[in-house]
Design brief:
- By secondary structure, the protein is α+β, with helices and mostly antiparallel strands.
- It is built from 16 helices and 18 strands.
- Helix 8 runs antiparallel to helix 13, helix 9 crosses helix 11 and helix 13 runs antiparallel to helix 14.
- It is globular, with a radius of gyration of 22 Å.
- The chain starts with a helix and ends in a 13-residue tail after the last helix.
């Protein structure tokens, strides 16, 4: 619907003229995320507190206008796109770290705080916030919570939901609730915190987070292991875990992703390798030295042609920057891509690698894989040119086949990117009709008029 001057005036009264956008050229900036799709809202508001969020939601509900919460817009599945127009609620002004409690290992922060900046702030206090998505330099705590982001350290430390103790949330009805606790234990009532985390802004708008912290590890070392084949690298990952070694992270890159990252970063990666593993370990100096020695032995025995430890922190940072550069660098293989983040049991990674290779050969499309091998989370990128309908058809069929194989291996269709709009059509492959029905009833209870982020997850 086209917003009348009356609606815009009401929004202006809530957030102020300086914090309301409605000109077309401004709205374009809030019509995108990292997917190729674009949906433009009629207005963008920038509330500064929970009261303003509640007032906007009350107005939207009374007028039947949809509201799409938005963090940094760095999501991979369209979760922050206003697919039905309406209002985009940008949480940029919620950018304060309210408390860092060193005695109780907790912090309280607003959802617009950039994840990387939060990590730096707690590390300056000798504390550690492990969730580390590749977008940490610009994504926000609220967006990470909405998508239940993960990252390389998940193999040892878990994902975002494991570090959220409680939330302040504004419901679509304008009610402001607090969930969870500030203690290590708490079992009073349903776990609404866990329900909110990963709900992609469909159940409420997060306005405050209470986060669990850990002691900052004393020492970190980063290693690389180079292999002639992707299957051998994948088998090594399973063997490391079988040996009872739990690294801070185990990432893998196939040949295509190695070549992309090297061209992009000039990090000295071995472009003739079939695959490399990037492995980090942390703990005391003694614990790290022992783990490095054991992992090195496992890698060499499994067939690694070269295993080495980064000589300095700067060298390690270059490796991680190279790994995180893969996704944007992939466009050397084509103007468009479909980016999926399937998860399979670690022991089934070699099976999935073989399936990806077979699909690439069958379709003639370049398929690049990399990701968090330590927890089985594989990022599969299908490169194509969407100007050619035959490539689009082959790519879409490949996605469906990929998902079917993932589920057959005991996996899941999304590890950290969420569902949004790009995976909504596939939810029924994994979730039963009874479970989907329950999700719809939960959505109805939280958002009776369906105004919050409609079109996502098909709930």
């Amino acid at each position: 619907m086209a917003f009348t001057r009356h609606i815009l005036k009401k929004l202006e009264q809530i957030v102020g003229r300086a914090h309301l956008l409605h000109q077309k050229e401004d709205l374009v900036c809030y019509g995108y995320d990292t997917t190729p799709d674009a949906y433009y809202p009629e207005a963008v508001v920038f509330p500064k507190n929970a009261g303003q969020v509640a007032a906007v939601l009350n107005l939207a509900r009374s007028l039947g206008i949809s509201v799409t919460p938005r963090g940094a817009g760095s999501g991979m599945t369209g979760g922050a796109l206003a697919v039905t127009g309406g209002i985009v609620m940008a949480m940029t002004r919620f950018n304060r770290i309210l408390a860092i409690d060193r005695d109780n290992f907790i912090a309280v922060a607003e959802p617009g705080v950039v994840t990387g900046e939060f990590q730096k702030a707690v590390e300056a206090q000798g504390l550690f916030y492990p969730p580390d998505p590749s977008s940490a330099a610009f994504s926000t705590l609220g967006g990470n919570a909405a998508e239940c982001a993960g990252g390389p350290k998940a193999v040892k430390y878990g994902v975002t939901r494991d570090y959220i103790l409680g939330l302040e949330v504004v419901l679509a009805t304008g009610e402001i609730i607090t969930t969870g606790v500030q203690t290590a234990k708490g079992v009073v009532g349903y776990d609404l915190t866990r329900l909110m985390v990963g709900s992609e802004g469909t159940l409420g708008v997060i306005t405050k987070l209470t986060l669990r912290l850990l002691p900052l590890p004393a020492h970190v070392e980063t290693m690389t292991a180079v292999y002639d084949s992707m299957e051998t690298a994948a088998e090594t990952v399973s063997e490391i875990i079988r040996q009872g070694i739990v690294p801070r992270s185990i990432e893998y890159m196939d040949n295509a992703s190695i070549c992309c990252a090297e061209e992009y970063m000039k990090a000295g990666l071995p472009v003739d390798a079939g695959a490399i593993l990037i492995i980090a370990v942390d703990g005391t100096v003694h614990e790290v030295a022992e783990a490095v020695a054991r992992i090195s032995g496992v890698c060499k025995k499994a067939g690694a042609r070269d295993v080495r430890t980064a000589e300095s922190k700067a060298d390690a940072e270059i490796l991680w920057k190279a790994r995180k550069s893969v996704s944007p660098a992939l466009f050397k293989y084509g103007p468009d891509k479909i980016n999926e983040d399937i998860v399979v049991p670690r022991s089934r990674i070699p099976d999935m690698v073989r399936k990806i290779r077979a699909l690439s050969k069958e379709t003639g499309l370049t398929m690049v894989s990399f990701g968090h091998a330590g927890d089985g989370n594989i990022h599969v990128n299908i490169m194509l040119d969407k100007r050619h309908p035959d490539q689009v058809k082959k790519a879409n069929q490949a996605v469906s086949d990929l998902f079917d194989h993932t589920l057959a291996l005991g996996g899941t269709l999304s590890g950290e990117h969420g569902v949004g709009i790009t995976k909504a059509a596939y939810m029924s492959k994994e979730i039963s009709p009874a479970a989907l029905g329950l999700m719809k009833r939960i959505k109805k209870a939280f958002d009776p008029d369906g105004i919050l982020n409609p079109g996502k997850m098909r709930v």
